[in-house]
Give the backbone structure.
Amino acid sequence: MVKITGLVRVFPAERGAVVACDRISFEIPPGRFFTLLGPSGCGKTTTLRCIAGLERPDDGEIMLDQVTVYSARQRLFVPPNQRSIGMVFQSYAIWPHMTVFDNVAFPLRVGRMRLSSAEIDRRVRGVLAVVRLDGLEQRPATKLSGGQQQRLALARALVREPQVLLLDEPLSNLDAKLREQMRLELRALQRQLGITTIYVTHDQVEALAMSNIIAVMHDGRIMQVGPPREIYERPQSPFVADFIGSTNLIRGRVAGPVGVDLHRVDTTHGPIICTITEGAAPQTDVLVSIRPEDVVIRDGPPAGTPAGTWEATVEQVVFLGESVDCRLAVGELILRAHAHPSVRFRRGDRVHLEFNPERCIAIRPEGDAPA
Amino acid sequence: MAPAFAGSHAPALRSRVSGPTLLLIGAALLVGYLTVFPLIFLVYGSFLTPIVGGQGGTFTLDNFVKAYADRSTVPILLNSIAFSAGTTAVAFVIGTVLAWITERTNAPLRRLFFAMSLIPLIIPGILFTVSWIFLLSPRIGLINLWLQDLLGLPAAPFNVYSLPGMIWVEGLHWSPIVYLLMSAAFRSMDPALEESALMSGAGLGATFYHVTLKLNLPMILSVFLLLFLRGLETFEVPAIIGLPAGIQVFTSKIFMAIKGYPSDFGLAGAYSTVLLVLTSLGIYLYARVTREAARFATVTGKGFRPRVIDLGPWRYAAAAVIVAYLAVMVMLPVFVLLWNSLLPFYLKPSVQALSRLTLENYPFVFKLPKTTRAITNSVALSVASATIIMLLTSVVAWIVVRTRIRGRWLLDNLASMPLIFPSVVMGVALIWVYLTLPIPIYGTIWILLVAYVTRFLPYGLRACSSGLVQIHRELEEAAEISGASWRRSFTSIVLPLLRPAMVAGWMYIVIVSVRELGSSIFLWGPGAEVLSVIIFDFWQTGHFQELCALGIMLVLALVVLALFSQRLSQRFVA
């Protein structure tokens, strides 16, 4: 289990200071795949490096598996070489002057374990088999392909059987095909070993595909923590809604409830029915988030839609193969919509838009404006 | 879970003084001792009356008054500036023209030239100077004699014993450095920058002025400053050509103050202090300009194919320039040394002289005990100083580049400080230090070791820190995460990866240590002779044939060493 409480890390800058981690707190149950997701500069890597011990926090507390490794209050800081962690770096950090075997054996040789060489040999071969690099032991580490180097870095991180595995954008240096394949392999391996894993990425697809829990970070703060589906379907802030996937944000004001968790929201472009699970008082200002794939485009007005439909003009149609990306003008407002490739609209067509109330999420506009 | 981390469960409180901090303190003390003491003692000593038999040593301004109120000081200052400026101009023009020909034109022979461009850097300044006296002396200079025969001139057309003669020899000697710097600049500039100016409607002239020249201006300025500083600091040409010609500059004046009778350390100190102020100013400007150059950096790490200009029939003229340069830079100097080394006494090259050729000078050189001692001393000193410097600077560079310990900038500045010391000034300063401190090493091989280690410390630091910057920080962090202590990570990861840079730096320091004359000439003593001092001594006592034989062997040894180091560094890169 990993528990982070009130973690603060401030970097001195030319003018003032940059708060890379602003009172970060989260908890990861054992064996979970936890992802820190956010744009570059949001503090996700700094958070990871604080957990690793490569960065010394300014405040807060870090516990790895019931052991406090950092506590500002107790003035405690366990250096990285005494923490129970394995880490895969963005650059892989494969030592070029060593063979595959020596790279993996290094953590066993330098630690306090004092293992026999037979035991080291057994463990290294074991972990190399797990990452499917067996047979390449004596090869110079630089003579490996990108994917093999990645697996070697993973083997080196796992060989000490650490309690926590830290992964710092490990897939960002691979080409698209390989990245997809490694994503699945990495996830399968993590499940198989049951090791608590913290993964840092700016790629939302990666985060959604691999994680048990995602923490979305922005400007040094955690914006939302939850399972991938919840993050995607129930964003709690405009930033999260916009960063995970893409979305249309429409300003409005709550008019009143129209059903269980359903509320009517009035916008300048017309009324819309939204889901608000925690309830909202009438006259509250909200932002309505509608994903482009949830905008239904029709030729004519459908019958019997409770809140009516919006009329729009097609501004732009981009054919993408698996979908058609449309920009639709509703008065001043431009909405994006993904339509099935079979539909054929032209620029200038008048259409009607329909929104599924369960897919329209009302978000409090305070906090961060969408970046 | 494995019991692997049992030990880590005890909370470890990182002590206030960590290993790297102790290392920083140790390195700072050692580096500070080497670099700060000479400076303090030099300035201090220049304010003292002469110490004679334990008397004197009281505060005085006389040295400065004597040095600068004297009317003869004005010509020295003017000579120094004229000599440095002339050297700068000659070296810059020659080096830049050659760089342009080899990098930007289709002249034949340019590949060959690139391969040979390193050789001139290896020839020690004292040998280069001596060889040009053999070529341009009005009495025995080969070029003069040939031209007189050829054109029927009544007198020698050239006289090396003049300010233009000094400028020519010194400028030529520094031109390879300009060539290296400028060809790197030509090579790394993105041709798209020039092409886009052309596409914007600028003519060739406007493109050259607004883009090529202005982009490279910081770089060109920094080369100017570097050359000017070298001109102020150099010792060989002012001592060997300038003194007989009666043209004195700061370095030769300092030499005379110490080597004259009686030695006037205070006066030497006063001249040194002012020279030091000039060089410090130069180094400061140089640092400013190179920072500016970095901001203008046109190097993006991409392999450009620079625009090659078709010279048409002129390319043979360009090839002739290359051949002429190699002739004056390598062939003529080496030939004249070789020729003299094979003769029993000086003779003009002729058919008759050929029958006199002998190899006797070579074994004779080794029969002199001081020569064999000098060879042993030079080898021992250069190897020892290079080894000490590389070990020390690898640690210093690691602290400066990698750690975030407060105070590391001080270490960086301390280790770079010897850059402001001209070799002659370092010699004077070390005399003061070890005549004052109760450490009896003056006149022994140990003071030479201290001098070399101090003077070449910045070169080692440069090699190590540029090597270290190229080693990804994550390689070390991965070792830390793997459970390695910082000491283990330094020895198992940093040092092996830094080895190519360290080997290259080591070789360079060996070469410059063997060539070192400016400090050695003040610090050597009986039994502690070194090769450069012996060559200087041969020159002053008129043992020209022995000088040439020793010089030829020295050049050969240095060339072999340089080629070997080049091969070695290529193997490491591969």
In short: Chain A is about 25% helix and 35% strand.
